Sequence to fold (134 residues):
Amino acid sequence: MKWRINNKSEKLNIASKTSDSNKKEFGEYIKEQVQLQNWIMSDDKTQHIYCDCVFYFDRIDKDCNNYFKLLLDSITESEAIWADDNVVCERVNRIFYDSKNPRIELTIYPTDYIGIFDNKNELEQFENNCQKNN
Fold:
């Protein structure tokens, strides 16, 4: 697989290679993209992170689930996006077939939810209501 940048938003976008032989090279590539895209790693070790994936396979007999372990471990080892991949919510958005340019495109960004709350605003409203009732 090959990597390439998909820089369509403020989210961190990475398309990746996926083999042990280039794991270190991929880690360096991740670090470069973190700098280029101004990604700031959260100090919150419990912040969940979406990793949205679009797979472009060279043939139809491939299984996207087989790629996640290497991808997430490589990103974790780069120490540039998250401290541990236990916070990652990997999601397959699409699968395409492209025999001339097989690749995986990753879009990485923090989730909005915090615990049982859909976003920070809901959490703050709940905390404010609790303080008013005390």
